[in-house]
Amino acid sequence: MNVSAPITPALPDTVLPDTLARIIEGKWQEVRERSASVPQHEMEKRARDAKPMRDFTGALCSAVAEGRIGLIAEIKHASPSGGVIREPFEPAALAASYEAAGAACLSVLTDVEWFQGATAHLTAARAACKLPVLRKDFIIHPWQVFESRAMGADAILLIMAALTDTQADELEEVARSLDLAVLVEVHDQRELERALGLETRLVGINNRDLKTLVTDIAVTEQLAPLVPADRIPVAESGIRTPDDVRRMSAAGARCILVGEHLLRQPDVEAAARAMVQAG
Predict the structure, then answer these.
(1) Whose CA, among 118, 128, 142, 154, lies 20 to 30 Å from 74?
(2) What is the largest distance, in Å, between two alpha-carbon atoms of the chain?
(3) Which is an annotated Pfam family here (predicted)?
(4) Residue 21: which residues within 8 A CB-CB, separation 6 or more?
(5) Does residue 11 have a pLDDT over 50?
């Protein structure tokens, strides 16, 4: 799959869990439809004309160097497992609260079908603060990488369970050409070994089993020690308490991505601050 390749599915070597397979199938169709309205050459131009980047990786490194937890605070309206998470849902207000709490970065869901996300959520959140922003979606084609930069994202997520090694390599190459940071997500040792073939320093360890949707933060405790010293492990999913944060830190993951727990709290800012200060 090169940058100008037709938009046709390419599947990982492993069998995808049913839910993820359905998501990816729908995402291919979505990309076909949306790229018909905005051709890739036009999206590339929009990406090149986008606002200046914010240093996503640098923000996490700075937080850790200052003795804080590198919190990537997430903004999402809903999830497949949890339904609607927060009402009223105000991305700009949430972004401002997370920044005030000391979060290093934001993560914003833009997937429409499964997470009730939108491009507007990311643009509103980014405009309301100075934090770098990760576009969290199911990125499977270069068109989406250009789209991510065009909408103002500073980083993208690549999920190894949803990609072949060739796809991951080429999507990262496009991201690097745009100065986008890449957070590569893994769920087990095999995916971690594949992810280490990429150049990105950011390795997200998802504690959620994609087959059962059950979370267990012991996954990070198992995988983080296997991440080389020149990479940055980021613990994702299932982190709910300061004790959980300390467990992740003790395992070697001084950076964490937390969303649903924070979004369900009455005082989002206080909840996020407790996470940042737990380390």
Answers:
(1) 142
(2) 48
(3) IGPS
(4) none
(5) no
Count of residues making up the chain: 279
Which pLDDT belongs to residue 80? 82
Bigger pLDDT: 23 vs 80: 23
Question: 6 Cβ partners below 8 Å, 6+ apart?
Answer: none
- The token pair at 184 is 């590569």
Query: Do 122 and 153 touch, CB atoms closer than 8 A?
Result: yes
Evaluate if pTM is beyond 0.90: yes
Question: Which token pair is 176?
Answer: 């690097």
Average pLDDT over residues 81-96: 94
The label of the residue with tokens 């090149």 reads 48
**Among 201, 110, 102, which residue's Cα sits nearest to residue 152?**
110
What phi-psi label fits residue 102: left (phi over 0), alpha (psi between -120 and 50 degrees) or beta?
A: left
Give first-to-last CA distance, the chain, whole Å: 42
Q: Which of 39-53, 61-75, 201-215, 256-270 has the lowest mean pLDDT?
A: 201-215
- Average pLDDT on 241-259 reads 97
What burial class does residue 83 get, using C-beta atoms within 10 Å of its C-beta: 0-12 exposed, 13-18 middle, 19+ buried? exposed
Secondary structure (3-state) at 227: coil
